[in-house]
Amino acid sequence: MIGARDQKGMPKGGEVNAFLGRGTTFEGKITFEGMFRLDGKFDGEIFAGDFLVVGESGQVNAQINVNALTVNGSVSGNITAKTRVEIHPPGRVIGDIKTPVLIISEGALFDGNCQMEKVETRREEKISVLKVKGDDREESELKEIEKKSGS
User: How many domains does the structure of the chain reveal?
Assistant: First the structure.
């Protein structure tokens, strides 16, 4: 779902799984899967899910922990996003952000601290070791060694 995006940061062809509409007010804790669009007012906590979109009329006062976030409205609170945070005008974020990718479009507002962490990638290297004739140190003809590193 994280890939091509339209002008407001929405994934192209992305289907909204849940929606909190304009004029709706909700307090509490939200957990979701897929894409959630928030155009109303929300106070509380938002966890899990793949992709959260705060629409232009959206007003969020929450601790947010999602895979990816696009803000076109107003967010107040700390944000943790595993892949990216995008803020587009007239969007504004007041709070701290922890994410590997932060995109702030011209005209958007961010007031807070940002901690950008490297996306964890695992690299695997395979090395083949052949037995040399007369070498009794190896028991097999071919031994495959996997060397894994976190860089």
Answer: 1
Assigned domain for 151 exists: no
Give the amino acid at 122. Answer: R
Cβ proximity of 44 and 62 under 8 Å? yes
In a domain, 94, yes or no: yes
pTM of the model: 0.69
**Tens digit of pLDDT for each residue in 11-38?**
555 676 677 888 888 999 988 888 989 9
> How far apart are alpha carbons 151 and 30 in whole angstroms?
34
Radius of gyration of the chain (CA): 22
Give the integer Cα–Cα distance in Å for 106 and 87.
9
For residue 139, what are its two tokens? 């028991």
Residue 52 lies in a domain: yes
Which region holds residue 107: left if phi is over 0, alpha if psi is between -120 and 50, else beta? left
| 106 within domain boundaries | yes
